[in-house]
């Protein structure tokens, strides 16, 4: 199963590094990644493989805590919501 | 692979346009709880509801976290109590309402629907006991909702019941405004409606079933902003595309809820349901379509376009579309409707006209507290007639505001919002209503 991680917030040093370290430590592989900065605001989207590693609920909780500690919003969603809405 | 633009579009709908799943409603049959003892009946229904729906709220919250989309309400609907409790031969059904309220509180759902009766053709002794019990049942409980089916295209209109309900609404309003907000009457009530106050679990339904109500008027409004000045073909196409996307989210949530709860999926209700929040309003859609306020000439046409295209987009997105499936136009629950009523653009008569082309009816409308019972019955009779003749569902949920007059506000709080007291035609229909009896079913041929 694939998860979509979106990170939004004021840009600062090390956002990608901190998220990637967490994913790596928990055995979650990154399949795709894109990042932009618009007017000082950091915006990243990742597609990750959640077949291995902790449960969806745990990763979701951990990422939210991580987001709070960095000062950005991190959201993890099951890919099916995007598939349902945008694919027939 | 999903594109970043698509991810961004979905998440903007959720964050900025209030895209949500409005309700997951579990329908539970209480027919097997029938008993000749009122006490035993109450303990059986409490046991069944709290057992079957024990995981409903937890499951809803977990699905919400999984997809990152809010699921606002988790609710339960049950077999109409006048049918399930008929065997008790009780003359007072209040203890049953109290039991339903306790069960709802135990499982954490905010409303439980089904303190209901289907009396479109006539009333059984149990129907009469239930109707008598409604005012206290709704005033003295927190979470119980009630609906009555007073008319149908097949059976006509039970005018005795329409007359009785006019008085019951006055009685209820003397006890509490909230009681009236939890009570609705229907013509052609549907058996799989997930929305309150009109949800009940029909007798033709399975043992348990999950029905889902989607929402997202803000998403439709935002999409229409991109079509400003465009012709009607573009407007229709925009609404259809958006309704498709919204409904697909509902379908996904419904399937997942059905799987996790081990309960069959019933249907998706496509109704666009507003809340008092900005960017979550049906009135804003009508304004975006080019009306200064809902109620202006053109409103009925605009509602017809909206309703029809929400259905056209929605049916493509789900295998089982059901419930009420239309645009809701509750006055108190939509800040744009409140404003339109406040400035005098929206009248009861225009709301009635709008109900000819959309679901559901005169909904969450506050009227002066001194409105006679017969006048309320007259308003109900008019709505029932529209439903009966046109073969559609219509409804009335109306609140006589005690001690208040036109222009005053009634506060309900939360999703139920607040309503300005609207003027009612003051000419009498008492002699018409007091005739009593039943209006026969309409003819179904000679459509012209």
Description:
The complex is a heterodimer of chains A (88) and B (448). By secondary structure, chain A is of the alpha+beta class. Chain A has helices spanning 15-25, 56-70, 80-86, and strands at 2-10, 29-38, 41-49, 72-78. In chain A, a hairpin with a 2-residue loop joins strand 2 and strand 3 (41-49). The model of chain A has no long low-confidence stretch (mean pLDDT 93). Chain B is an alpha/beta fold and 448 residues long. Helices cover 44% and strands 17% of the residues of chain B. In chain B, strands 1, 2, 3, 4, 5, 6, 7, 8, 9, 10, 11, 12 and 15 form a 13-stranded mixed β-sheet that branches. A two-stranded antiparallel sheet of chain B has the order 13-14. In chain B, helix 9 (217-225) runs antiparallel to helix 10 (232-261) and helix 9 packs parallel to helix 11. Chains A and B meet through helix 2, strand 4 and helix 3 of A and helix 1, helix 3 and helix 10 of B.
Write a brief structural summary.
The complex is a heterodimer of chains A (88) and B (448). With 88 residues, chain A is an alpha+beta fold.
Shape of chain A: globular
Look at the structure and give the CATH class of chain A.
Alpha Beta
Largest sheet of chain B: 13 strands, mixed
According to DSSP, the number of beta strands of chain A is 4
Number of domains of chain B: 2
Task: Report mean pLDDT of chain B, rounded to a whole number.
Answer: 94
| CATH fold node name of the largest domain in chain B | Anaerobic Ribonucleotide-triphosphate Reductase Large Chain
Let me know the number of strands of chain B.
15
What is the CATH architecture annotation of chain A?
2-Layer Sandwich
Strand content of chain B: 15-25%
Report the biggest beta sheet of chain A as strand number plus sense, adding barrel if it closes.
Answer: 4 strands, antiparallel
Q: Overall pLDDT of chain A, averaged?
A: 93
What is the domain total for the residues of chain A?
1
Protein structure class of chain B: alpha/beta
Strand order of the largest sheet of chain A: 2-3-1-4
From the alpha-carbon coordinates, what is the Rg of chain B to the nearest angstrom? 21 Å
Structural classification of chain A: alpha+beta
- Please write the CATH class name of the largest domain in chain B: Alpha Beta
